[in-house]
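== Item description ==
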Amino acid sequence: MDYLPLTQPVGDRSLYDQDFFLWVQQTSSALRAKNFDQVDWENLIEELRVWAAASVRN
């Protein structure tokens, strides 16, 4: 699979900011393939933190 840069801005917005669904697909594919250098770690960690906080509240 060809990956779009996950953290490199397109214009002034990253893929994470432009297309969250595509970002999730590419991030999960990169993790499955163990292409750790292609993972947007900063945004992934933030999404996990938010998800965990929401799970605790429910």
User: Anything to note?
Assistant: DSSP finds three helices and no strands in the chain. The mean pLDDT is 87. The CA atoms of residues 9 and 36 lie 19 Å apart.
